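Design job #97: recover the sequence.
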């Protein structure tokens, strides 16, 4: 499978096994929607996107697997909805005819800037969250509970927004001392080794994605508790 590195394939198998163990075939289908749609959209947006590593797979699916193994279907589905919403927002938002704007200030930024959002990307993210919520309901993941569709969709959107907020405020951004080029990884070497420009050195894009799924899982679990599910 050209969409995953060897480590990514192993990680995907582990995440799939965890979700299946906790939620059965229904959970596996929801996870498949996330992984397949994300990979297809990445290929479409980038023509030939990079293969996903184990770290990237775990950042997007690890919380869902952990929640499923712990027996919390709401948290697991909420995490999947958040990862799907964020992925759809990023990849479909790349086709926006207007430049993205930083979620914290509204300032126009270049495409691909962490924390940048667009109307097209945001709508796509909402659609992704709604799709996971609707499929979970259709598959009977939690039984007959129509109100949970709104809870899961809200959890997915909350995770997507958390990703953008962290990307704009806390994610580490690095710059080349010689040419001021900006990068997201501190291990990059441009003209010289890059230096930290803002944010937390240890928080990269994978860490932000993981935090987004934690947010989605927490919102969904809280919503399920309030709804008495």
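Job complete. Output follows.
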């Amino acid at each position: 499978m050209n969409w995953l590195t060897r480590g990514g394939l192993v990680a995907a198998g582990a995440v799939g096994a965890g979700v299946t163990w906790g939620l059965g075939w229904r959970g596996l289908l929801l996870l498949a929607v996330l992984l397949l749609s994300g990979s297809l959209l990445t290929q479409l947006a980038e023509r030939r996107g990079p293969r996903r590593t184990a770290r990237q797979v775990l950042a997007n699916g690890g919380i869902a697997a952990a929640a499923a193994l712990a027996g919390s279907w709401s948290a697991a589905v909420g995490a999947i909805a958040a990862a799907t919403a964020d992925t759809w927002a990023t990849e479909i938002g790349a086709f926006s005819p207007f430049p993205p704007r930083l979620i914290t200030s509204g300032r126009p930024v270049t495409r691909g800037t962490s924390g940048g959002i667009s109307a097209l990307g945001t709508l796509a993210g909402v659609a992704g969250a709604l799709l996971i919520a609707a499929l979970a309901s259709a598959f009977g993941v939690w039984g007959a509970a129509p109100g949970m569709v709104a809870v899961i969709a809200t959890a997915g959107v909350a995770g997507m927004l958390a990703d953008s907020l962290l990307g704009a405020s806390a994610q580490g951004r690095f710059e080349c001392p010689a040419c001021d080029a900006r990068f997201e990884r501190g291990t990059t070497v441009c003209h010289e080794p890059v230096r930290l420009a803002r944010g937390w050195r240890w928080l990269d894009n994978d860490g932000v994605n993981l935090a987004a799924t934690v947010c989605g899982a927490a919102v969904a679990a809280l919503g399920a508790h309030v709804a008495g599910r």
